[in-house]
Design a protein that fits this description.
The structure is a single chain. Strand 4 (94-101) and strand 5 (106-113) form a beta hairpin. The strands form 4 sheets. This protein has a 5-stranded mixed sheet with strand order 5-4-3-6-9, with helices on both faces. Strands 12-11-10-13-14 form a 5-stranded mixed sheet. A two-stranded antiparallel ribbon has the order 1-2. It starts with 13 loop residues before the first helix and ends with a helix. The chain has helices spanning 14-23, 29-36, 40-53, 120-138, 177-189, 202-214, 272-276, 278-287, 295-303, 307-331, 345-358, 361-364, 378-391, 394-404, and strands spanning 56-61, 74-78, 84-90, 94-101, 106-113, 145-152, 156-157, 162-163, 197-201, 220-226, 230-236, 239-240, 335-339, 368-371. The protein is of the alpha/beta class. The longest helix has 25 residues, at 307-331.
Length: 406
């Protein structure tokens, strides 16, 4: 009998049962038997291991499993109180960090200045201090942390957790982020140095967080972050699409004709980021005598209703919209989300003007163009979800249970 887990009979392990419960596809013992083809005794044995690990708990009575009637079956629930996740989101001059529950609730958070050009050793060391303070604020201990997720503004090789030739992260190329952040956590929070650390691109994690919490039924989701730089995150079939080596979504370095003379931070001329990012808009404002040095400065000017900032943001939106016409034609997403410092009405208006003008009507007929729902928390939520999905994936549950001795 083939189960919805993709395995059947004796093949379905404790991890597969946990996945069925977490997803809500089977939440009683009888439903698990039906989904997997396992006997009642085998289901009981495998569930017992999950209970002893503290990963499952019994909930209220659910529907009656038997067609002959009887007492309601006891439902099974993922116990999200047995551990917490740490997450951080690095931007060029600012960072946010948080303690999250296993279901994505932010329990404590902190934001502050953290300059990425100071280098990985200093920045990751400071994050370790932030994590220690946040755990105290949330009332949790270091041994309760099951993993750490980190969002960075550059392409990441997901197999190694190292950034690869990041244009706006000098000194970070190939650096062992996982090991350094693990040591910082151990040093400042007195946690285990071998705590799992997952690193991914910030736009990827923003897209993952937004898609899971606000658009779970969208099978093709694109988020474009426009801040100091420009990047995109793509979620297809509920999974982040990273490309061969983490470079997918790097639309800020697509060449555009109007930027032929604009030098990008990557060293090339004509990149979209060189003419339409928050950094590019800030440079144009500064050249006109308006104090602005970064995308966050542009955001503050837009919030204050500065007319020149609004005009330049709309122009930048048109340039990005022109590129997104190709992206939408290629991927045919159901949702295109604009996020980051420039994600306000002027920029969004510019995007829509060129996107709908240049893309085929067929490509945009079922497209929703929206702005961020989670705002500055999107990457934190995405990083937390990435850690949880990694650690509680069926193929990883067995080795973790063995390590716990259950």
């Amino acid at each position: 009998m083939s189960g919805r887990t993709g395995k059947s009979g004796a093949q379905a392990g404790a991890g597969d049962l946990l996945e069925l419960v977490r997803s809500g596809r089977a939440t009683t013992r009888g439903a698990l038997q039906q989904a997997t083809g396992l006997s009642r005794a085998t289901v009981g044995l495998r569930l017992d291991r999950l209970f002893r690990a503290g990963w499952l708990r019994e909930g209220a009575g659910g529907p009656v499993d038997s067609p002959l009637g009887g007492r309601p079956s006891i439902t099974l629930e993922f116990d999200d109180a047995h551990a917490v996740v740490l997450a951080a989101d690095l931007d060029t001059r600012h960072a946010r960090a948080a303690v999250l529950s296993l279901t994505g609730e932010i329990l404590a958070e902190h934001g502050g200045t953290l300059v990425i050009e100071d280098g990985p050793d200093a920045v990751l060391g400071e994050l370790g201090r932030w994590f220690a303070e946040l755990l105290g604020k949330a009332g949790h201990l270091a041994h309760e942390v099951c993993g750490i997720g980190l969002a960075v503004p550059g392409p990441v090789d997901s197999d190694t957790g190292r950034v690869v030739q990041p244009p706006i992260m000098p000194g970070w190329d190939g650096y062992d982020i996982r090991a350094r952040l693990g040591r910082a956590f151990a040093e400042h929070a007195h946690g285990p140095a071998d705590v799992p650390v997952l690193v991914d691109n910030d736009a990827n994690l923003m897209a993952y967080g937004e898609q899971r919490t606000g658009h779970p039924d969208c099978s093709a989701f694109v988020l474009v972050k426009v801040s100091t730089g420009i990047g995109a995150g793509v979620v297809v079939g509920g999974r982040i699409y990273r490309g061969v080596d983490g470079g997918a979504g790097d639309i800020g370095h697509i060449r555009v004709p109007e930027g032929a003379d604009a030098l990008c931070r990557c060293g090339s001329y004509g990149c979209l980021a060189a003419v339409a990012s928050g950094g590019a808009v800030a440079r144009r404002l500064a050249g006109a005598g308006v104090p602005a040095a970064s995308g966050s400065d542009v955001r503050d000017l837009l919030t204050a209703g500065h007319p020149e900032a609004a005009a330049l943001a709309r122009e930048a939106g048109r340039r990005v919209g022109d590129v997104l016409a190709t992206v939408v034609t290629l991927l045919n997403p159901g949702v295109l989300m604009i996020a980051g410092d420039l994600a306000g009405t002027p920029f969004l208006t510019g995007v829509r003007e060129l996107l709908y003008q240049r893309a085929l009507p067929r490509s945009t007929a079922h497209l929703d163009v929206v702005t961020s729902r989670l705002g500055e928390r999107a990457a934190l939520v995405g990083a937390g979800a990435l850690v949880v999905e990694h650690l509680y994936a069926p193929e990883r549950v067995e080795e973790r249970l063995l390590a716990l001795g259950v």
